Amino acid sequence: MSTIQTGEPFVVFDHVQKSYDGENLVVKDLNLSIGKGEFLTMLGPSGSGKTTCLMMLAGFETATRGQILLNGVNINEMPPHKRGIGMVFQNYALFPHMTVAENLSFPLEVRGMDKAEREEKVTRALDMVQMGKFAARRPGQMSGGQCQRIALARALVFDPELVLMDEPLGALDKQLREHMQYEIKALHDRLGITVVYVTHDQGEALTMSDRVAVFNDGRIQQLAPPDELYERPKNSFVAQFIGENNKLPGTVEALDGDHCTVRLQTGELITATPVNIRHVGQETLVSIRPERVEHKSEMIPAGAYMIDAEVIEVIYMGDIFRTRMRVAGTEDFVMKSRNTMGQTRLAAGQKLKIGWHPADARALDPIE
Amino acid sequence: MTETASLTTSDGKPLKAALAASLATRRKKALLLVAPLLLFVLVTFIVPIGQMLFQSVHNDGFSSTAPTLQAWFKDHPEGSDIDESAYAALAADLKQMKADRTAGVAGTRINYDISGTQSLFTSTARKADTMKPPYKDAILATSDKWGDPNVWRAMRDASSPYTIDFFLNAVDMTRASDGHIVAVPSDQAVYKKLFWRTIVMSAEITVLCLLLGFPIAFLLANIPMRHAMLLMILVLLPFWTSLLVRTTSWMVLLQQQGVINDLLVWLGIIDNGHRLEMMYNETGTIIAMTHILLPFTILPLYSVMKTIPPSYVRAARSLGATSWTAFRRVYLPQTLPGLGAGGLLVFILAMGYYITPALVGGADGQMISNMIAFHMQKSLNWSLAAALSTILLVIVMIFFWIYDRIVGIDKMKLG
């Protein structure tokens, strides 16, 4: 478990379960505490339960079991409009029959704020997302990126302490998405709000979050800051889901503290760092990040494990070369090499030795 | 300007002309596709409506059969003395009518204005051959009705094939014997009241349909697809049942010895002596028509609601709105195109509805269309029926115009 907490627990999921049909649990025993001011991302494939968690927090779904605490108060029975949580939806959900200003004014109106105060807050919120000139427009007259900014401003205009975002950038093109990531992050830092962000885009999760909760099959697979998640995945699912990953199946031959010896299917014995290995003789998947694999002797770290490889194809991707090769019986072993000045460009069919440090080879559970 | 003008296609034609030519070909092809329907609509819709509009101001039943009188009326302006020359003209026309067997036609036209005159024409025409001058005495001898100035006034009006008299009749007006337009006595005034009742009843039916249809449409749009299909069949079932069957089944339910009354008596809610009158009055018409027209509100509402994602209401709720506020300020305004389309559709259909009020309406559940049918089939005053229909058409178009001004016709969504 991660130890990073930006403040005292602000949102707590306590043994929360959710089922829609009474037969299958969509969320299975969720325990999660989110600190005040934290940017937490729920990451996972579709159907993993992350959106359901968000909807329970927002109040649109009720937990089948367990309780959700907001600021120490059980909010299970509290209707959504009393929770005071800002929310940004995937399709923006800007009211099409209202202008931008009316959209922003809506949450203030329902709170009974007087006109002068409303106008001041609307202007401030629009300026915050650099959309001051668009107050009189209707959502239908704006681009996706502009709508997204307005949706963001609307979720923030009534000064909520907690903002939920449900794949807010899903509908934007890549460039705009990356730009908005930085803006959302900057807003979070500036306003000191707590953000719970749902996405299936791992890049987004790594870029923006303080911590990432990786969901699969209704459970949190790992909850950790981005760097830890990427470099020290706790199981094969996380290793697979976050970034690219080479998998070498094998059997554990020896287990000794923070080292283990794995016999690969083709017979080679390699040293790896055991992560969730319980006993000798267990099936395992050894996971190695493509960028930690080297082929030039001067780049290979001391104590590296060397293995034979045959190049199948080389893809030029601009900043890197992506080399797919045959290693220990698998044909989709990938090596990524930076396109530096002295980089050797390999050719298909070439046979060579590659190597990696045993610390980068992590022995994980076999995927069923 | 010069830049675009100088643009040419590769073979040197001006670009604009080439584009126009290619678009014209496409338009012609498109026109061919709609041509059969256009022809059909022209023959079966536009021409009959035009004829109806024409008939409401045109009736040559008298003017074509009484040319001599027509000439006399032309030479002698209103207020002239009805002298021997007038009777001579009348006698000449009556002789001709006898020969052509058209006395009935002429009589029918005058009969619209003064009842009982049809037989006056036919009986006098029978004796026309034997008449000798002075004609005044001869004709007055057959019936002293011929001395009635109202009959002569009516003949003068009818001597022109074009008249607005039918429209006057349709709004409860008539011409006094001196030719001035006056309101008919209040005990004979029916049409204005009937038009007003038609509008009020249609409005009531529309409001009821919207109130009943809205929740069903909402349910349809928000339950899982397979349940929605079943419910949709139930909604559409009335469409597949004969209108007559549906109306008569309402008769079975609503009449005084009917199912509903029996049930209420059996339950002890009402006394056997005080059975509810739910049929042969306005209530019956409204109940049965609401049922029949309900699908016309549900379908447009459903198609609009289907396109409103649940995230709008969720967004409103998360922004602090109660469920009622979220409904009123966010959901309801977005269903407006469906409400407008369904409401307008039902209102217009109800304005012209005929069978149901005829069967369950009784005396005070009748609508203007029943009166139009009466004049078409019973009184055979087609011109008055046409005038009533024209007024109905104008009223509907006025409502259409009001709708366009308030809601905007482009916002309407029929499904």
From TrEMBL, chain A:
GO terms for molecular function: ABC-type polyamine transporter activity; ATP binding; ATP hydrolysis activity. Its EC number is 7.6.2.11. It catalyses: ATP + H2O + polyamine-[polyamine-binding protein]Side 1 = ADP + phosphate + polyamineSide 2 + [polyamine-binding protein]Side 1. Residues 11-242 form the ABC transporter domain. Gene3D superfamilies: 2.40.50.100, P-loop containing nucleotide triphosphate hydrolases. GO terms for cellular component: ATP-binding cassette (ABC) transporter complex. It comes from the Bacteria. SMART domains: AAA. Keywords: ATP-binding, Cell membrane, Membrane, Nucleotide-binding, Translocase, Transport. Part of the ABC transporter complex PotABCD involved in spermidine/putrescine import. Responsible for energy coupling to the transport system. PANTHER family: SPERMIDINE/PUTRESCINE IMPORT ATP-BINDING PROTEIN POTA (PTHR42781), SPERMIDINE_PUTRESCINE IMPORT ATP-BINDING PROTEIN POTA (PTHR42781:SF6). The complex is composed of two ATP-binding proteins (PotA), two transmembrane proteins (PotB and PotC) and a solute-binding protein (PotD). Belongs to the ABC transporter superfamily. Spermidine/putrescine importer (TC 3.A.1.11.1) family. This is Spermidine/putrescine import ATP-binding protein PotA. The gene is potA.
